[in-house]
User: What shape does this take?
Amino acid sequence: MFEEERQKMVKMQIMRRGLCEPRLLAAFETVPRHLFVPEGERHLAYSDGPLPIGFGQTISQPFIVAFMTNLLKLSGEERVLEVGTGSGYQAAILSQLAKEVYTIELVPELAARAEKVLAGYENVHCRAGDGSLGWPEAAPFDGIIVTAAAPDTPQPLLEQLKDGGLLVIPVGVRGYQDLEVWTRNGNEFDYRRELGVAFVPLRGKEGW
Ligand code: SAH
Assistant: This one.
């Protein structure tokens, strides 16, 4: 079910916008996005935009998930942290591309729902809690991806990167942010800016 829609999504929304890495495309062809959206939204699961998932939160547009995932340059050997599990879709995509995925969600109901949907993804570890502080017990990580917008890059997340590790995070004001890519070199941290994006706010101790 939905296979045709899924292939069309990969071709029209991801490949045509310039993302062509075969492993990345395979992940999007494999993960059934419709199982991660609320039942009433399933017919829109493969459309070219974000969708509501309850509690005022959204599942990101497929292209944005692909774009951010691509920035992590995963080869399959990495340990990755996602902050903001939401629907669990981004975590499922990461599970196809990294070795271990740790994902943390602040809203307990969303965390519980995602954990259920992700039950078959054995390399995904779920937790309910404040991800603006990272997941210290599972650190360090080769990659960290934050799928909510931060006013500033949280220091605990930078500290939980391995040497050479990458952090992808939207940073800015409410309603508009730049996607930043941070790299750790020893105790130095450099960043560059990628696209402009609009994410729901990161809450918690290091958020809003
Ligand atoms: N990656 C998700 C989309 C996330 S929407 C997906 O694939 O569906 C952003 C999510 O971040 C929301 O579910 C929100 O509740 C969560 N969030 C906000 N602040 C957080 C925090 N401090 N720690 C963990 N999750 C947080």
Summary: Helices lie at 3-15, 22-30, 62-71, 89-95, 108-117, 155-159. The chain has a mean pLDDT of 98. The beta strands are 51-54, 57-59, 79-83, 100-105, 124-128, 141-146, 161-173, 176-185, 188-197. Residues 10 and 28 are 7 Å apart (CA to CA).
